[in-house]
Structure formats: structure tokens, C-alpha cells
Write a structure and sequence with these properties.
Blueprint: H1 3-20, E1 35-38, E2 45-48, H2 53-63, E3 67-71, E4 73-75, E5 87-90, E6 92-97, H3 106-109, E7 111-114, E8 120-122, E9 137-140, H4 145-166, E10 173-177, E11 182-187, H5 197-208, H6 215-218, H7 228-239, H8 255-264, H9 268-282, H10 288-292, E12 297-299, E13 313-314, H11 324-327, E14 337-345, E15 348-350, E16 353-355, E17 358-366, H12 367-375, E18 379-381
Antiparallel strand pairs: 1-2, 1-3, 3-12, 4-5, 6-11, 7-8, 7-9, 10-11, 10-13, 14-17, 14-18, 15-16
Helix pairs in contact: 1-2, 7-8
The structure holds zinc ion (2 copies).
The site of one zinc ion has 8 residues, from helix 3 and helix 4.
Length: 399
């Protein structure tokens, strides 16, 4: 990001923290948490501790960092080096990222960039650049409504597992839009807080269906009312439509017939492939590393995501009615516009409107849209003097 654009983004962040910093809530046991922040153009600072929320909010307004993070763990001494911190416990965290869900729309809106010749195009990254044959190609993922909806659907799957397999009701899990293209789910004050990293890995494996064998289909006939994966597998097979390619030919429509068909007519290869499909359609696509690692710091709720300029926002109401493409816009009741030069951007939806696609063109866009495109690395701010910066006026009023 060029200097001029960076300055504007930082001022946008500063104004947001000045006006809305009071929305940031203290995590439980704030004095036992580790904090960290990433300054614009700087290196991450970790191992910070805050005694109270006032100091934390003051830092956000003063520094307006690109990212601000808080541990899900609590420690005896959070500002000590990692091995001396004295780990106490950690909330269970799940990370669902739309990009990892590989929606078919990715080939429409994702962008690849050749580091050899600078060629930039829509579509999935090719093996080598058609212009210069370089294989140094970067993937630049974007997320459309379909991607964000897929992440929400995955979150619902996770909540179902949490409730019916782990006994964690929806009131025990907090759901956050990540500020980019996914959701963070945090389970607080549960019996799982004391689990070590190995037990958390087992939990992540369970959600991913890792290690689930095809034997569940052939030798240990699952029933729809069974707990855990057995019941999920049974209900999935029972509820497949009549025209499902796996059973349409044999006309095995009832659950009993389908199970018989699998055990007696399917080849081993067919069983394995069908089982792969059952797992893939029923598992939760989480980033296991995030759940397993108990020494991470996570973007703090109500802070801004430097990859989009959107807010990491808690979904406090019903998840199905939560629209992050509207509700996570930081300064949305704002009539300011910004002149940007957009290099390459797919059509995006933000704040209730859609914009683009754009290719090598100057546009006058709502400020939050300009911020989104700049932080995505797709645009730069136009205008040379500081007076013309959209945020030249200092934030002065609190709502
Ligand atoms: Zn190239
Ligand atoms: Zn998409």
C-alpha cells in the first residue's frame, strides 16, 4: 500500500476508534490476558498486558493500529515470555473461513497475480503465467455473498455439533464475523476450557470426521436416532433425494434398502468414495490449527480488520438474520466519498449496495468502499494534497 493510501486508512481507523472505541468490551479476566497489536507498516508487538479497559481503548485511539489482538488463554503473568506466562485455561475457539470452503464462485471473483511480470487476472491461479511462464503466482481471494453465506451455513453446522455432540448450547457459544470472510466461534466458561492442545486436536478431528471409517456403513448399521456421527451418517443417507446418483439407478429409496445396497452391491472403492462424500458433506470445515493452538492471540471483537476495513463484530441476534456485509461496515452512516484508482476488483456487495467489477479505472466511491478496496490491495487513493484526504478533518464528535 502506498504512503498516501496508508495514511488515509490509518485516519479512518483512528476515527473509528475515537467514535466507537466505547463498543469494545473487556474480555473476562482482562488482567490475565495477553494482548498484541500490529502497527501500520510495522512489526507485531505481543506480550502486552492491560489492567483495565480504559488503557486498552486509549492505545487504540492513540496508535490506531492495523490490527489489535487478545489471547483466548488466560495466564498468571501474561506479559512474561511464553514459557514463563503460566497458562491457566483457554476458551475453545473455532475458525471458519469462506475461502477454505472453495465455493464455485471463486473462479469468477478470485484474482491471481504474477510476481514475474505483474500480470493480474480474474480466475483461479494457473500453474504458470501465460505471459512470462513464471510459476511465482499469488492467489488473491475475494469473498462474495455466496462465500459469506457458505461460511454462515458452516457455522450452523458447527453449532449443531456443539449442541448435540458436546452439550454446548447456543447461549454458551459467541459468534463473531471475522471482519474478513468468515466466522470465529468462541466457547466461554465451559468444561472444555482446561483441555490441553492434544485434547483440542482430538476435538478438531472429530468435527472434521477425520478417522471415521467406512465400517460405520457396512458392519455397524447406524440408526437415525444414534448419537454423534452415527446418527448424522444415518440421517444423511435417509434424507438423500430419490434422484441422488448413488441410488437412483437401483431405485433404493428407503433407508433400509440404501444401507443394504451399500453393504452388498457397492465395491470397496465405491464405499470409500461414498464415505468420503458423507464426511465432506457433514463435517465442519474448520481451521484445526486455530482450535489446537492455545497460545494464539485473536483479533479483538469490535476492532477493525486491516485486510478489509470491516469490523470484527459479534452476532448478538439470530445468526440467520445477521448480514455481515451490512452490519460489519465500520463508518457506514457516512456521506464522505473518496477518489480511488481501482486496479482490479470483482463485483462486491457492501453496505447494502453493489460495486464493480472495476478494471484500471478511477472511481469516486463511498468511503467504506474505498477503504475496502484499498485494504484488499486492489485500489489506491487519488489526490495529492493532505487537504484532499477524505479524513482530513480530525474526528471531533462522538455520537
Ligand atoms: Zn507473468
Ligand atoms: Zn464467492
Amino acid at each position: 500500500m502506498d504512503e498516501h493510501s496508508t495514511q488515509m486508512i490509518q485516519r479512518y481507523f483512528k476515527e473509528y476508534y475515537f467514535r466507537f472505541g466505547s463498543r469494545i468490551k473487556a474480555p473476562s479476566e482482562i488482567e490475565h490476558r495477553e494482548f498484541g497489536y500490529l502497527p501500520f507498516g510495522g512489526m507485531m508487538t505481543r506480550h502486552l498486558a492491560f489492567k483495565d479497559l480504559g488503557d486498552l481503548r486509549a492505545l487504540l485511539v492513540k496508535e490506531a493500529p492495523a490490527g489489535f489482538y487478545c489471547s483466548n488463554s488466560t495466564y498468571e503473568d501474561p506479559s512474561a515470555e511464553m514459557h514463563l506466562k503460566g497458562w491457566k485455561k483457554a476458551e475453545l475457539i473455532f475458525d471458519i473461513d469462506a475461502d477454505a470452503l472453495n465455493q464455485p464462485c471463486k473462479k469468477v471473483h478470485d484474482v491471481w497475480l504474477c510476481k514475474g511480470c505483474g500480470r493480474k487476472e480474474f480466475g483461479l491461479r494457473p500453474e504458470t503465467c501465460p505471459s512470462c511462464k513464471s510459476n511465482r503466482l499469488l492467489e488473491l481471494p475475494w469473498a462474495c455473498r455466496q462465500c459469506v453465506e457458505a461460511a454462515k451455513k458452516e457455522t450452523f453446522k458447527l453449532l449443531d455439533f456443539l449442541e448435540f455432540d458436546f452439550g454446548i448450547t447456543s447461549s454458551g457459544a459467541k459468534i463473531y464475523f471475522s471482519g474478513n470472510a468468515g466466522y470465529h466461534i468462541s466457547v466461554e466458561k465451559s468444561a472444555f476450557e482446561n483441555l490441553d492442545t492434544h485434547a483440542r486436536a482430538d476435538l478438531a478431528d472429530y468435527l472434521s470426521g477425520r478417522g471415521l471409517s467406512a465400517g460405520v456403513l457396512t458392519s455397524r448399521r447406524p440408526a437415525a436416532g444414534d448419537p454423534g456421527w452415527r446418527g448424522r451418517v444415518a440421517r444423511y443417507i435417509r434424507d438423500l433425494p430419490e434422484d441422488d446418483p448413488a441410488f437412483a439407478k437401483s431405485q433404493a429409496f428407503s433407508y433400509e434398502k440404501r444401507l443394504f445396497e451399500i453393504a452388498n452391491e457397492f465395491s470397496t472403492k465405491q464405499i470409500d468414495s461414498f464415505m468420503g462424500r458423507v464426511i465432506s458433506d457433514n463435517c465442519v470445515h474448520i481451521d484445526s490449527m486455530v482450535t489446537t493452538d492455545i497460545h494464539r492471540i485473536f483479533r479483538m471483537p469490535e476492532t477493525l480488520n486491516n485486510k478489509t476495513g470491516l469490523v470484527k463484530r459479534e452476532c448478538e441476534k439470530d445468526l440467520s438474520g445477521f448480514d455481515p456485509l451490512i452490519e460489519a461496515v465500520a463508518l457506514k452512516e457516512d456521506d464522505r466519498n473518496a477518489e480511488v484508482f481501482v486496479d482490479l476488483s470483482p463485483k462486491i456487495e457492501l453496505g447494502g449496495d453493489s460495486y464493480g467489477p472495476y478494471k484500471s479505472e478511477a472511481k469516486n466511491l463511498p468511503l467504506f468502499v474505498a477503504v475496502y478496496l484499498i485494504t484488499k490491495g486492489a485500489a489506491k487513493l487519488l489526490g495529492n494534497s493532505n487537504e484532499k484526504l477524505p479524513l482530513a478533518r480530525e474526528p471531533s464528535k462522538s455520537p
